[in-house]
Amino acid sequence: MSKKPLNIGLVGCGFMGRTHSNGYKRVNDFFDVEYRPVLKAACGRNEAAAKAFADKWQYESVETDWRKLVARPDIDAVDICTPNNTHAEIAIAAAEAGKMILCEKPLSMDLVEGQKMVDAIEKAGVPNTVWYNYRRAPAVTLARQFIDEGRLGKIFHYRANFLQDWTISADLPQGGAGLWRLDASAAGSGVTGDLLAHCIDTALWLNGPIASVTAMTETFVKERKHNLSGKVEPVKIDDACAFLCRFENGSLGLFESTRYARGHKALYTFEINGENASVKWDLHDLHRLQFFDYKDDSITRGWRSIHVSDGDHPYMKNWWVPGLQIGYEHTFVHQVADFLKNLGEGKSTSPTFREALATQAVCDAVLDSAELGQWQTVVPV
Ligand SMILES: NC(=O)c1ccc[n+]([C@@H]2O[C@H](COP(=O)([O-])OP(=O)(O)OC[C@H]3O[C@@H](n4cnc5c(N)ncnc54)[C@H](O)[C@@H]3O)[C@@H](O)[C@H]2O)c1
After folding, report:
1. Per-residue pLDDT tens over the stretch 330-341
2. 33, exposed or middle or buried, with CB in 10 Å at 0-12, 13-18, 19+?
C-alpha cells in the first residue's frame, strides 16, 4: 500500500531534534501505518549548524526562522524541539496556521501559558501530542496494561524518583547552548519541569489525577556565571524537589528529583503498590518490569523480573524476535507510530496538549507549595 506523505517541519536541531528525526526515519520500517513522515525542513538559528543537521538526517531544506517554517504551505506538522520558553509562541503560531503539532515537554513555562496553548490548539482543532515518551517504553505500557486488567487491585502507593548529578560543580555556568536548563528564564523551572514532569505524566497515566501536593525545593548553588550576560547572576531554578501527594483514587504519592545525586545520570524509577500486586520499573533497565503477585503460590512467591521482549508485550511484535530487547530511542519511534496511526483515525495522540496541561498543573502546584510552605490543591484542567 502506498503511504500518504506527512511533511514534517522540525524546530530545534539538538538532542530531541535527533531522537525525533530517528523516530520519523525508522517508523515505516517497523510499523504498518497509513502515513509516511517526510523530513521536509529542519529549522535552527545558526544556518551552518542547521545545514549540517539537515544533511546528516536527510532533511530536504533548512530554515533559520521558525516563523518561515510555520508559514510554509508544504509543511503539515510542526515538531517543537526547542527550549521550554519557546514552546508557546511556536505552538500557537503553528495552530493558527492550521499545522499539526508535536511539542516537546514540559508543555509550557507555567499553567497560565499552557492554558493559552491548549486554547489555541483546541480552537484550531489540529492533531497534537506532547513528547512524554516514557509512557511508550514497552515495560511502562505493560504496567498500564496490568493496572487496567485489575492485576494490582486497589492502589495504595505510588513512588517515583528522577536522579541526576550533572550540576554539582559550582563552576558550571548557567544559560545559553547546552546550559539553558539552569536558566529559569529559558527553562521555567529546574528539576520540577525538566525531570519530575516525566514522573508526573507517567503517574497521571498509570494512577489517575493528583488532587493535592506538599513540596520542598532547594537551590544548592545560589549564583552562577550567566553565559549570555557574562555576569554572575542568581540561580532561580530548583536544583532539587521532593513532594508528597494524594491521588484522587485515595493512594499516596512520593516523588523526588535532583541533579545532585552523585553517581546517577538518569535514574528514573517508579514503584506502585496495590492490594494484590506491585510493579516497579527502572529507566536504566528499561526493558524489564519487576512484578510481585500475591496470588502466586506461597512457596514460589517473590519478585519476578519480566524481560519485556515477547511478541505479546506492548509494541514488541513490531521489532525483533522474543528475547531481544529494545531501548531508549524506540520510545520515540513508538510515539511517532501512534501519532500516525491515530492520525489515520482522525485523532490526537495521548498525551495531548490538554493532558500535558494536567502535568503542568501539578508542576505549578508543587512549586507554589514549596514557596508557600503549605499543601496546595491541584487546579483541575
Ligand atoms: N522527552 C524527553 O525525554 C526530553 C529529553 C530532553 C529534552 N526534552 C525537551 O526537549 C526540548 C529541547 O531539549 P534538548 O535537550 O533537545 O535541548 P538542546 O539544547 O539539545 O537543543 C535545543 C535546540 O534548540 C535550538 N533553538 C533554541 N531556540 C531556537 C529557536 N528560536 N529556533 C530554532 N532553534 C532554536 C538550540 O540552538 C538547540 O539546537 C526541551 O523542551 C526539553 O525539555 C525532552
Report:
1. 999 999 999 999
2. buried
Taking the centre of ligand 1 as the mean of its atom positions, its distance from the CA of residue 83, in whole angstroms, is 4
Cell numbers for 354, please give them: 490538554
Query: Which grid cell is 51?
Result: 545545514
pLDDT in tens, 59-115: 999 999 999 999 999 999 999 999 999 999 999 999 999 999 999 999 999 999 999
Instruction: Tell how far the Cα of 148 is from the centroid of ligand 1, in angstroms.
Output: 34
Length of the chain: 381
Atom of ligand 1 nearest to the CA of 86: 31
- CATH code 3.30.1330.10 for 134-326+351-377: no
The DSSP symbol for 86 reads G
> Which cell is 90 given?
511556536
Q: 176: CA distance to ligand 1 center in Å?
A: 11
Q: Write down the domain spans for the chain.
A: 4-133, 134-326+351-377
- 337 phi and psi angles, rounded to 5 deg: -60, -45
